[in-house]
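Workshop exercise sheet. Pairs work together: one partner reads the sequence aloud, the other fills in the structure field after running the prediction. Swap roles for the next sheet.
Pair: D.N. / O.F.
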Amino acid sequence: MSAHQRSTDSQPLKAALWMSGALLGFSSMAVAGRQLAGHLDTFEILGYRSLIGLMIVLTIAVTQGRLRECRASAMPLHIGRNLGHFAGQNLWLYALTLIPMAQLFALEFSYPILVGLGATIFLGEKMTPTRAFTSALGFAGILIVARPFGADGLSIGIFAAMACAFGFAASALFTKKLTLTAHVSVLGIMFWMVTLQLGFGFVCALADGDMALPRLIDLPWVTVVAVAGLGAHFCLTTALSLAPASVVTPIDFLRLPIIAVIGMMFYGEGLDGLVFLGAAIIFSANYINILAENRRISARSTPS
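Structure field:
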């Protein structure tokens, strides 16, 4: 499909409606993760989340007659993708208990910049002047949000939040490689995500010989983490199929003020102007990159 056809077929209103589901899912997952942190550790949360997620994915696969899409193929790429995602998600849940949610979300937004750098290093993509500029701009935004040279220095919570972006970036790079080299569907990717991370979560949770079972009061929150996580990614993927990333990304950025208000209302977290400034710079770097990529695609598809 050409760039012109994509723009003609774009459905921004439908994309915005799907993105409202993604915003709700990501925000709900953060609240549920914070609620579970007092009793379950991050490995246990992800293990139980993956168990519920596996039941959901298998139900979809069986009822829609798509079980064949869950066959084992390109397993090294699936394993690499999920190791990155598992590490990133554990660090994200850990940081969630230590720093304001708005600060965590702002630092998480830096992962697309890391994906661009990783694609240059590991996938052989060209480092264009725009990518170099946006990487430097994004790094400046990260420094403003993290403030490693401030009075408090680089806390363990800030470090975990910054490190989680590397995990998500690694997951995205493996996903890109997976879709380029193997015939896999979104359902297949989701199946191996919950299956592998179920194993990773329970192995890590049992490593100390003491794995806590969820209490009755925990079960609704574990379910929210599982359903909200899967639902948010499905809504985001659907939105990107209906409209260009340049339309969808600004809507995704609304996660920050939403979670900041939630943190203020329910957890007594203050609104930090520097977090919003740094996040705006990170967002600008991502958006410039998206617009430049759209121009490159358009130029390639335009007949000479």
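Discussion prompt: The chain has 13 helices and no strands. What would you look at next?
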